[in-house]
Design goal:
three-stranded antiparallel sheet, alpha/beta, 2 domains, eight-stranded parallel sheet, single chain
Amino acid sequence: MNDISGLFGIQYPIVQGGMIWCSGWELAAAVSNAGGLGTIGSGSMYPDVLREQIRKCKSATVRPFAVNLPLIYPQVADHIQIILEEKVPVVITSAGNPKMYAETFKTAGCKLIHVVSSSKFAIKAQDAGCDAVVAEGFEAGGHNGREETTTLCLIPQVVDAVSIPVIAAGGIADGRSMLAAFALGAQGVQMGSRFVACEESSAHDAFKQAVIAAKEGDTHLTLKEITPVRLLNNPFADQVKMAYHSGATNDELKALLGRGRAKKGMFEGDMIEGELEIGQVSARLGHVFSAKQIIDQTMMDFKAAVQKLSL
């Protein structure tokens, strides 16, 4: 057991990313039951939906789980109240400053993790009282950092900058990449894209199939002027590229993105007009597995890689 496993009361130091439209209670419970830290992604949920998801998760697992809380969410205060009332054991904040909420969570007994894309923000998270940070590199899917620092560069920088445990994210999908993250000083890993293409994921089947069919170069980071996001190539992503080529303003980019486009793509399965958020590691996935298969295989490969390196 290492610091991450002990801190959160989990068997393996594997955290499931809280991806919007993909991370419902079924996935969170399945990951927790398999020994990792399952996460409900609240960024796509109204408050009443979040409460229902938490309660269903609690009924499906006796093990710890987390709620991912994007701090830019307009009803964040309602979400926090629900998290406290439902006694969620772990909260993972992202897209904002956790300082104004940290004391509230810590007083309630919640473990607090914050997602960062730089050592500067990692230090701020530590100073705010976070128990750990997720350091997420440029390779990651969904909303990303503007710095474009790759995981290989980011993890050791963050590890050297803070004394709290670091969880590596971005481009991690198996035991080999987990071992690489540990070699860089991380004490845990967060996998997002790998769990999108998972049987228990709430992602639409068409999206899962598009993810496992992805090849090298099929994703790109874009919309940095609004909010950086890594998109899988599709006709909507082509529209975004054309908008840039024609010199679109920020307002024009916002109008093109509109509302509900991520739901349309990832949850409803519109592969033409939907926004498809996924990491570069999608090119390595190949198959849809259960959460237990993913975690068991990851740990098996991790131990095999350790053994190989020790010879």
